[in-house]
Amino acid sequence: MAEQAVQPLVYATYPDLRDKRVVITGGGTGIGSELVTAFAGQGARVWFLDIADEASHKLADALSGSAHAPQYRRCDLTDLNALAAAFAAIDQEAGGIDVLLNNAANDDRHEIDDVTPAYYENRMAVNLRHQFFCAQAAVRMMRKQGGGVILNFGSISWHLASSQLSLYMTAKAAIEGLSRGMARDLGADNIRVNAVIPGAVRTPRQQALWHTPEEEARILSGQCLRERVEMQDVAALTLFLASDNARRCSGREYFVDAGWYGA
Ligand SMILES: NC(=O)c1ccc[n+]([C@@H]2O[C@H](COP(=O)([O-])OP(=O)(O)OC[C@H]3O[C@@H](n4cnc5c(N)ncnc54)[C@H](O)[C@@H]3O)[C@@H](O)[C@H]2O)c1
Question: Is the CB of 105 within 6 Å of ligand 1?
Fold first, then answer.
């Protein structure tokens, strides 16, 4: 099947995002790399954490001419000591964090019969645990400065009951509960917490691993809109939610899925 031509998207400009200190997990590839690009384009100061060194360095190089060149920091987010050290180093360098985008994840497929206790723990570490501890580290800085924004990336998958993803979906369902709980506890500190819920987004990894004409047709027939969701569509929603335009948005889930109710 021929690839669809992607309509170019021009991001809105949010003046309050200029010079904001933004930390993006999993910013080296996929949706995260578009988030890095979009926030750098707003004039924000971006730090991104990842383990994909080659892609991350390449991205940082490509964006080095931005108003503030995005900074790549290698950090395996399943290692909580490394995570704490990365946030401490950013705090020292930036003097705080205004926006945290908890984006890193891994949606490897798995069969229920093959799951061992170690694999279960690993999937929770890759997809859920770091969101809490990154938020905890960021919140300590945000409280001191009088506020901030945390956006946790969930997934449409568990809303649709997708197959071969039960652990990923367990983590992604929990992220919506985590987001609501944090929004309640942190509202008095002027910290907004929301969940961003992407649908089937056309990323290099998705296209390389799971793209078939049948899958493309299944997605399009399940969506209200008959166009694929692009990484830019996720970044556009994220820019809005991170900006002051969304100042009364907290404790909710925001879908960017072309209205995908399954097929
Ligand atoms: N692509 C989709 O269709 C889709 C759909 C629903 C939800 N999402 C969510 O959107 C977010 C981004 O998805 P994506 O498709 O761009 O993912 P991706 O797999 O393409 O990229 C994830 C990034 O996270 C990094 N990462 C993974 N494990 C890490 C670790 N232990 N430490 C540091 N970095 C690590 C990877 O290196 C990679 O750069 C995820 O939260 C995902 O669950 C994506």
Answer: yes
